[in-house]
Automatic annotation (TrEMBL):
GO terms for biological process, alphabetical: D-gluconate metabolic process; pentose-phosphate shunt
Family label: Belongs to the 6-phosphogluconate dehydrogenase family.
Organism of this sequence: Actinorhabdospora filicis
NCBIfam families: gnd_rel (TIGR00872), PRK09599.1 (NF007161)
Official protein name in the record: 6-phosphogluconate dehydrogenase Gnd
SUPFAM superfamilies documented for this protein: 6-phosphogluconate dehydrogenase C-terminal domain-like (SSF48179), NAD(P)-binding Rossmann-fold domains (SSF51735)
Length: 292
């Protein structure tokens, strides 16, 4: 099958390679001419035979919205656009309606797999019509991991990115649980080899996972994590997950706490904890550590 890909970064470039390895004809466009197959979106569309399918792998927000609009002006009736980035699910309805005025189909695809996807395959959560999903199945089959798992047609337009949003919210919570356990081990006077404990959990335990494998890998490279800052950013999907929980009145204790912990990581000296310290001093005369 023939496919165009817009955005050949860490994931888009590897997806192009995985699809080509599976025998598909892929034409990629990126603003970086050194990795691009063509010199413009116009050239990409011209290089594809109709009915076309174009997969977008650019940053969410305006870059994706602008790319959808540009493709809407270039594609023809019967073509399909797939947004494989981390767009908010509410953008999908807007994008689909815009393209529908041109007779162009739209599919949203939540993609998980990161830099390991080239070798292991990408977990795909897709949303769209049955007809469009069926047409794109050869692409999905080539990208997904081998076996029965790693792909779901989650529902109509928006369902793929919604599923990926919740997936990433869960990821926040899992990562923070591992992180807290690691910190407690490091603080212990009893455990003398923290990396070895983490490694021992990788088989036969109920907490084994790929994330745990990656923590073990990180500790092999840097046993004390001395070369890594504690600052942790967020891509937005954790926030969107919590916002949806508020909208639907669903309690998300762990995911919400893990999101707020990331905010705390960006503070050199927490104003909230300064206030706590001041209050303890005021009501109880507790000692206050002076700022350096």
């Amino acid at each position: 099958m023939q496919l165009g890909i817009v955005g050949l970064g860490k994931m888009g470039g590897n997806m192009r390679t995985r699809l080509r390895n599976a025998g598909h004809d892929v034409v990629g466009y990126d603003r970086d001419a050194s990795i691009s197959d063509v010199d413009s979106l116009e050239s990409l569309v011209k290089a594809l035979e109709g009915p076309r399918a174009v997969w977008i792998m650019v940053p969410s927000g305006d870059p994706t919205r602008d790319t959808v609009k540009a493709l809407g002006e270039l594609l023809s009736e019967g073509d399909i656009v797939i947004d494989g980035g981390n767009s908010r699910f509410t953008d999908d309805k807007v994008n689909a309606e815009l393209l529908a005025t041109k007779g162009v189909g739209y599919v949203d695809a939540g993609v998980s797999g990161g830099v390991w996807g080239l070798k292991n395959g990408y977990a795909l959560m897709v949303g769209g019509s049955d007809e469009n999903i069926a047409r794109l199945m050869p692409i999905f089959e080539a990208l997904k991991p081998e076996g029965e798992f790693g792909f779901v047609h989650a529902g109509g337009v928006g369902a793929g990115h919604y599923a990926k949003m919740v997936h990433n919210g869960i990821e926040y919570g899992l990562m923070h649980a591992y992180a807290e356990g690691y910190e407690l081990l490091e603080a212990s006077e009893v455990v003398t080899d923290v990396p070895a404990v983490v490694k021992s959990w990788r088989e036969g335990t109920v907490i084994r996972s790929w994330l745990l494998d990656l923590l073990d890998r990180a500790l092999e490279e840097d046993p004390g994590l001395a070369d890594i800052s504690g600052y942790s950013s967020d891509s937005g999907e954790g926030r969107w997950t919590v916002e949806e929980a508020i909208r639907l009145a669903v309690p998300l204790h762990v995911i919400s706490a893990s999101l707020f912990a990331r905010f705390e990581s960006r503070q050199d000296d927490s104003p909230a904890m300064k206030a706590v310290s001041a209050l303890r001093n005021q009501f109880g005369g507790h000692a206050v550590k002076k700022a350096e």
